[in-house]
Design goal:
Radius of gyration: 18 Å
Oligomer: single chain
Number of domains: 2
Distance between the termini: 47 Å
CATH class of the largest domain: Mainly Beta
Strand content: 35-45%
CATH topology of the largest domain: Immunoglobulin-like
Number of strands: 9
Largest sheet: 5 strands, antiparallel
Shape: globular
């Protein structure tokens, strides 16, 4: 049986979560923009990254020989950048490069693998 204290604690957690989501729905603050996993769309896989202060964002990986200029993403809204990359079936490793120099580990991916440089590469699985 639940104690009165645990019920009170649960109530406050539920209220806090509700307030957070209400604020997220009513503001365009980039702090409340959630990351989106790479996903298949017509024409390939859509990659996106939310990064404040970015002037450019590229997706790089084994599919473009880690080129920083092959797949530049477009700014969509606020600090969200996205673009569609045609990919063949299989597993592909990737990262993002911000402003041509800053390598960024994907915040969301199907899996992650060590990159050999102390970071992790994201993995996207195309079926």
């Amino acid at each position: 049986m639940c104690s009165r204290e645990s019920i009170t604690s649960c109530f406050f957690v539920v209220v806090a979560v509700a307030v957070f989501w209400l604020l997220a729905a009513c503001t365009s603050s980039p702090l409340l923009t959630l990351p989106v996993s790479p996903h298949q769309v017509e024409g390939g896989v859509e990659f996106s990254l939310v990064h404040s202060g970015a002037q450019s964002v590229a997706v790089v990986g084994d599919f473009n020989d880690w080129s920083r200029s092959s797949h530049l993403l477009a700014r969509k809204d606020g600090d969200r950048w996205s673009g569609v990359v045609p990919l063949s079936s299989g597993e592909h490793v990737f990262m993002f490069v911000v402003n041509g120099e800053q390598w960024v580990v994907p915040p969301v991916a199907d899996d992650y693998v060590e990159d050999g440089f102390g970071q992790k590469n994201g993995v996207v699985v195309v079926r």
